[in-house]
Amino acid sequence: MAGTARHDREMAMNAKQQLRQCVDPVEKLRLQCLSRGSAGIKGLGRVFHIMDDDRNRTLDFKEFVKGLNDYGVLMEKDDVEAAFKRFDRDASGTIDFDEFLVTLRPPMSNARKEIIAQAFRKLDKTGDGVITIEDLRGVYNASHHPKYQNGEWTEEQVFRTFLDNFDSPYNKDGIVTMEEFLNYYAGVSASIDTDVYFIIMMKNAWKL
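^ thats the sequence. predicted structure below, dont judge the formating
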């Protein structure tokens, strides 16, 4: 997304500063992810997916610790245990992927959620609650993409790459749900201080 690189840098710096004072274990994990930019939470999701050998979309404590280590998250053992307990809401000893990402997602105001929903509805041409390549044909012009122009990619590849930006890191199926779209923009949203600016950025990006 144009216009977010500078915000990304600012957010990463802010997250690093906030980490110094932070005591809440979940917030510490969130800030460590955000210190890598708006895709930081998504990146952690990708690491966990790679580790989920049996594809049951859950993680036990050992996998959780290994995932954090693989992603380079530095936290005290007590904090890791406390964070895991917060994510493990039913005390089953495992945490659900989707619940984990939603809990880790930075909070957003209703005004921001509404403009994200408007963008989603505009992209969801067929109105079936998901965005697919078919939906994009009417709203996203592939011919402006440099790789399409030089013949390297087909229109289909341009659309698929565009969808992959929003798609869940552990389930790239070319179908983007509202939840996945929200997860993506939660990262972007964390880098933008005011609702007004976020709404202007969304309106410009999606011509709303």
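The longest strand covers residues 58-60.
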